[in-house]
């Protein structure tokens, strides 16, 4: 009598293609994602201002210029996350203008918006330097930023 053995199928799952896909996704997101340094300079705004939020359509075209208070009479200027200098820095207006134009190279030339953040303890004479740099740059609009802490 002839005995036929049945072949039993093993119940295994090949994980190699899934692992390949996971590694490809990890590499893709590592290359595509852009980590942007936060513009988290501490700025105290005037007391009577409510929170102001930018329109969602304008967020891509925003470049933030911040006038930061440092001590009693000291101040510093920042464009995006980069601190450019102090009011005593030689050619500070030209440096600010160049930094603003560099950050706005990729934005729409018809809609270049500056988000201006100024600490409430900064005198106008210091703020004027930032305003001059913005007026000399290729910016088309200025928005005063106010955030409620």
Question: What's the gist of this structure?
Answer:
With 149 residues, the protein is an alpha/beta fold. The protein is built from three helices and five strands. The protein has a domain at 56-144: Nucleotidyltransferase, domain 5, CATH 3.30.420.
Enter the CATH topology name of the domain at 56-144.
Answer: Nucleotidyltransferase, domain 5
Mind telling me the CATH class of the domain at 56-144? Answer: Alpha Beta
Calculate the mean pLDDT score and round it.
Answer: 78
Which overall shape is indicated by the principal axes computed on the Cα atoms? rod-shaped
Helix fraction bin: 25-40%
**Strand order in the sheet with the most strands:** 3-2-1-4-5
Task: Give a written overview of the molecule.
The protein is rod-shaped, with a radius of gyration of 27 Å. The protein has helices at residues 16-32, 92-103, 124-136, and strands at 62-70, 74-79, 82-85, 113-118, 141-144. The longest helix is centred in the first third of the chain and has 17 residues, at 16-32. The N and C termini lie far apart (89 Å). It has 3 helices and 5 strands. A hairpin with a 3-residue loop joins strand 1 (62-70) and strand 2 (74-79). With 149 residues, the protein is an alpha/beta fold. The chain has a 5-stranded mixed beta sheet, covered by helices on one side. The chain has a domain at 56-144: Nucleotidyltransferase, domain 5 (2-Layer Sandwich).
């Amino acid at each position: 009598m002839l005995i036929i053995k049945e072949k039993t199928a093993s119940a295994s799952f090949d994980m190699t293609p899934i692992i390949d896909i996971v590694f490809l996704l990890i590499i893709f997101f590592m290359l595509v994602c852009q980590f942007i340094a936060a513009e988290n300079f501490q700025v105290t705004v005037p007391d009577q201002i409510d929170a102001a939020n930018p329109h969602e359509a304008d967020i891509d075209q925003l470049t933030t210029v911040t006038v930061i208070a440092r001590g009693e009479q000291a101040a510093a200027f920042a464009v995006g996350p980069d601190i450019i200098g102090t009011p005593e820095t030689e050619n500070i207006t030209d440096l600010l203008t160049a930094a603003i134009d560099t950050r706005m190279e990729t934005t729409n030339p018809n809609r270049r918006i500056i988000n201006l953040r100024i600490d409430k303890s900064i005198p106008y004479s210091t703020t004027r330097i930032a305003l001059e740099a913005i007026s000399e740059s290729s910016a088309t609009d200025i928005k005063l930023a106010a955030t409620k802490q």
